[in-house]
């Protein structure tokens, strides 16, 4: 397997959850990390821990990926030794609210679309040309089972993750003549602060999502990202769908009279 040792890996949304777990695993494998998040305090904690535990080189970037100008400026002004990103992990994303579409909150929609779709696009558009110039690279998108089939009261979140799937497929096509690999990892239920964010701090509602189910752990997804990054260069892991053993997706609904 190709190694990740010494590679420079950019991880968005790295202060918690799947992004944080990817940071940990890639650091343990000897990667150099650029970690981004809106919360610099969270990033500093992660950076300190990874340096202490793994001797990792970590560059922290306070960044709202939904701000196009901020993405362009902050990537452009990375210190020289951090400019050559080998692997981009587009992890940052969120769900907000669980409303019927016809009753949804416009602000929630804007935030999800701006982050999950436009933010991913801004980072990809800004970082991938450098990979091509340098002769290789990889984009690992964190999609979702929600992008394969809608579920009730989740239409807009599901649509953003469907966009991640299609954007992954499209980028794979547009870089087919380049040494660029594109992966889309589509997890089902992962126990992170995802539901806390979705339910805006209502801990009871958030906890009820995982009640009685052994959900995936962020490390389970990081393992897959690491695998996708570690296979030989001629191997491209296009798509991985992963759920807890007791979850099945893709349901059909009926209203019977
Ligand atoms: C998260 C998957 O099913 O909890 O992207 O919405 S789900």
Automatic annotation (TrEMBL):
Signal peptide: none annotated. Pfam families: adh_short. Coiled coil: none annotated. Gene3D superfamilies: NAD(P)-binding Rossmann-like Domain (3.40.50.720). One of its GO terms (molecular function) is oxidoreductase activity, acting on the CH-OH group of donors, NAD or NADP as acceptor. Keywords: Oxidoreductase. InterPro entries: NAD(P)-bd_dom_sf, Sc_DH/Rdtase_CS, SDR_fam. Belongs to the short-chain dehydrogenases/reductases (SDR) family. This is NAD(P)-dependent oxidoreductase. It comes from Marispirochaeta aestuarii.
